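Troubleshooting: if your tokenizer reports a length mismatch, compare your output against this known-good record of 159 residues.
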Amino acid sequence: MPVLSPTWTDERIELLKQHFEAGLSCREIAADIGVSRNAVIGKLSRLNLTRGRTVDDRKGQDKGLAPARMRKAVPRLQYEMLATLYGETDAPVLAGPIDEANRCSLLELSENRCRWPISTPGADDFCFCGNMAPDGQPYCAGHSRLAYRPPMRTRAIRG
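Known-good structure output:
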């Protein structure tokens, strides 16, 4: 049975520390020492060698990201619905009761019908709202008010 030599010899550890202090990346250190990048990262961690990051370094990382990854994308129709609910547009918000006459099963659902579930899945009376849903929206106006309502404001407790 062949004898395996240890991955981290004293010379390799000394090279690792020198390269780390010189500011080389883990990939560059790994290529020079002859180990994997993950081995370098693991050994640096075990040796408690870390590079502190400044706020400027983190801001620099965001520049490489696509704009959609930097902020949460909101579909146009959902944005319009939320804007209406928050009072940011002039579009009227329907405040009447939700019509129960159009309830339907899963097989009867279509693209323009409200998908709000009624009851518990598997129960005998389980169904969907079935009212007309605005273009591309999953819910009717009444259920959209429930699904996309503004967060509750909490009062500070004074004591």
